[in-house]
């Protein structure tokens, strides 16, 4: 076997040098990733189980051009490999780069040699223009191997990780004795927690020639590092092969061409749907070779992902992202899902959504009314499915009580939903295509601004299954396609509600306009579909909203991260109004985002009947009270002091704090609030108006419960959520928040040149009255 074993040395400060191999204690600890080898992993989410991983680094990844190494990329790759190794995984690297590194060294030596010779033969020490001869690849490989390995050793030493170099040729796999020797060497290295770095011995191998590269499970020609990595992965029973190249993954046609689409999951038998382009600018393989090698490895029981290892924004975490199951590159799987992929669902929804938008308003209204009827007609089936979800949620113990409360449906909730949908069906007529503005630009040149759907909406919601028909009805009314991703805790309820929604849509042939994502798609992966999704609307916990806002790449997010709502009881408040409003705001539905979380009390009310009665009422309702810093200072024995004044409890808990004035309350709200809903209770109209004008929240109320911050209660029929954003929609987002506009210009052969100084026409820009059609 043409193999050279080169063990790295550890830093003297970390391990004492000796004549034996430095073996990590972790090598003898039982594996944290037990998985019998045999079948490849079926889903991306299962890649977290991968214990033995081969990382193949293509020439385009290792080199920065045809001559020289990409040191920054290599450093980040080494860091990720070392991190995974230290987690208890067994990592192997198949690397290119020896030829490029050797070419760089040899060119430098040749140029230096030429310059010295010219200097010796020139009295004036004037150098002629020097040319570098074409360098033979095997010589470059021989000159580059040692330097490349030394670089890897230096980098891995920084993470106390030992490496070994192994050079192989075809004979090492096809000769049975050499193959056993190679296998034994690799297993021994892995047992000792050493990262093998493998490459073809390009100093002695013959030049690659066209042949039958992959002829079956037992035969593979090692003519490039793609085939080497595949053969090695199968030979070593690796769980995962990560092939890094200079493209995002596998495309259905050459990247950069029109309509080229990145393939998320590739299945055996899909080869006929692929059109391959030219090979990489460096190296001897190409995408076709990578696909053949990947399919060969897949057939041998190793999962494969082809991804980009050169992109500066992702190189630093591409390997760890793949192992964590994130949607990166192209995943090769033998298990084809029964239904469409999420990308296919989105395309189906967009196509059907355009048909939905082209329907008459009356037809869209009929679909919504049909859905409302189905909610009442199929009430028993819906509640039965919801009961199963509730039982599973209760027995699992994974959900908090507020989430369980949001999960629950009742006959009253379904009736309320049906009423709201019928209200929306009536009020939404003339919503799409409504003329907002009409201008006579010039004679026979008229401009209109009209409402149009946004496109494809992605709504991600936790627990609340009643969100599904609400959002679906709004999407239907606004002519938008809709992608729904609900929590698994409500899977049974969501499934039947979506079936009823599609049944209503089928009456006008637009069944696919609303899709329920039931695959294993992670929320973070959905947020990366910026070419398919136009707007994301999260509905759930503040943590869910924050996670989506961070994960969304190039897709706007409409929503609020927290519902920290305040009730300010002024010193001129009515005692009866104050008690009723505080009770309703906190106790009616504590898990709602519009429930009161902080009660602000004017200082003059302390130790007065109104204050005492509010406290008694909260105790009667079993509300746990947390004292703000100022409130606690007034009390000898205070309740537990609040940890943060920016807390959304979502339960029968609230904070009480003392303020000196209305202005002090406004300042407190601006500092600690979330711009959701804030209320003043007072009989002083002037004070109330100042509060209403100064508080910069989406909803500001006077003498009314914060629970009124709701699309249905506002008369919007339904809402997709409450937005605290400062552009587009704000507050409860109903139908109008799901529409955008486009400009329509009707002319008669007009050109801009007609309006130049030498032209014959003049701009008029006269506004034309637009008749209102009673849009609500």
UniProtKB/TrEMBL annotation:
PROSITE patterns: GLUTAMATE_5_KINASE, PROA. Keywords: Amino-acid biosynthesis, ATP-binding, Kinase, Mitochondrion, Multifunctional enzyme, NADP, Nucleotide-binding, Oxidoreductase, Proline biosynthesis, Transferase. SUPFAM superfamilies: ALDH-like (SSF53720), Carbamate kinase-like (SSF53633). Residues 51-308 form the Aspartate/glutamate/uridylate kinase domain. It comes from the Eukaryota. The keyword Electron transport does not apply. Its EC number is 2.7.2.11, 1.2.1.41. Pfam families: AA_kinase, Aldedh. It is found in: Mitochondrion matrix. InterPro entries: AceGlu_kinase-like_sf (IPR036393), Ald_DH/histidinol_DH (IPR016161), Ald_DH_C (IPR016163), Ald_DH_N (IPR016162), Aldehyde_DH_dom (IPR015590), Asp/Glu/Uridylate_kinase (IPR001048), G-glutamylP_reductase_CS (IPR020593), G5K_ProBA (IPR041744). Pathway: Amino-acid biosynthesis; L-proline biosynthesis; L-glutamate 5-semialdehyde from L-glutamate: step 1/2; Amino-acid biosynthesis; L-proline biosynthesis; L-glutamate 5-semialdehyde from L-glutamate: step 2/2. It catalyses: L-glutamate 5-semialdehyde + phosphate + NADP(+) = L-glutamyl 5-phosphate + NADPH + H(+); L-glutamate + ATP = L-glutamyl 5-phosphate + ADP. One of its GO terms (cellular component) is mitochondrial matrix. GO terms for biological process: L-proline biosynthetic process. Residues 341-631 form the Aldehyde dehydrogenase domain. One of its GO terms (molecular function) is ATP binding. Gene3D superfamilies: Acetylglutamate kinase-like, Aldehyde Dehydrogenase, Chain A, domain 1, Aldehyde Dehydrogenase, Chain A, domain 2. In the N-terminal section; belongs to the glutamate 5-kinase family. Can form homodimers/multimers. Bifunctional enzyme that converts glutamate to glutamate 5-semialdehyde, an intermediate in the biosynthesis of proline, ornithine and arginine. PANTHER family: DELTA-1-PYRROLINE-5-CARBOXYLATE SYNTHASE, GLUTAMATE SEMIALDEHYDE DEHYDROGENASE. This is Delta-1-pyrroline-5-carboxylate synthase. The gene is LOC117744181.
